[in-house]
Amino acid sequence: VCGNFLISISLNIQKYTHVRQSQRGTKPYYTSRLWWCGILLMGLGELGNFAAYGFAPASLIAPLGSVSVIASAVISVVFLKETLRASDILGGALALTGTYFLVTFAPHSSPHVTANMVERSLVSWTFLIYFMFEMILFAILMYLYKCRNIKHIVIMMILVALLASVTVISVKAVSGMITETIRGSHLTIFACVCLLAFTGVFLIARARPRIKMDRVFISMGQIPGIPITPDSGPAIEPSRVQDIMGLCLCISGKRCTDKVQPQSDDSKYGKLASKLTCNSGIQDEP
């Protein structure tokens, strides 16, 4: 409830900033400190909603989103001097009544969400059928909205509701797993292992020099037996790829401690490769 109330305050602050900046014709709205205060309040409110999904069922938390709508209506009338209509009062009363019954009869406990539970749910036929149905319905409504230019409010609300349903499921899963991690579950070990793996890969690839291939091919033109043509580049036989790669490592600045092994059926390349020795660093496998 507090999170949704903060969201309603932030929306009204942002709207007030937009109206003021447009009337004054001054700098853009994102240069105003007041607008950024509204963004900060919205972030805090959404953080509160996110945390609530980790401790209570989604059927209990989701209906409380109507609090932000009702609070926004009240704040806009008091501070932004907007008009309050009879339909607004009736709609607010119906929303409060529906929210009260939903909260009263909704389950007040939910099973602990774990990674295994989320994995099983994502591959279950129930979720797959639901998700496919939602995608098809969303595509049909988007076709009516964009191609047929049907801008009815019901279509827009259904589109938002379809997206919100997937968002609520995702937030519930992530928030529940974070809650289990804080309580001492083994998700903690998984996060630490991922961090170690990422750190190891970063340390391995951190200071690797980059091979400039243009310099390599220019240097290859100086090797006897490898002609360079102006149009097609170096004419290298496929059977000599292994020998030439070894030579490129030495010419481009790479160092090795073993000799480059040539093909056994050619004495010319064998004599050339056997005389090339680089002194320290990476050792090529024979």
UniProtKB/TrEMBL annotation:
Keywords: Membrane, Transmembrane, Transmembrane helix. The keyword Membrane applies. One of its GO terms (molecular function) is magnesium ion transmembrane transporter activity. It comes from the Eukaryota. The chain crosses the membrane at residues 34-55, 61-80, 89-107, 127-145, 152-174, 186-205. Pfam families: Mg_trans_NIPA. One of its GO terms (cellular component) is membrane. It is a multi-pass membrane protein. InterPro entries: EmrE-like (IPR037185), Mg_trans_NIPA (IPR008521). It is found in: Membrane. Belongs to the NIPA family. This is NIPA like domain containing 2. It comes from Sinocyclocheilus anshuiensis. The gene is nipal2.
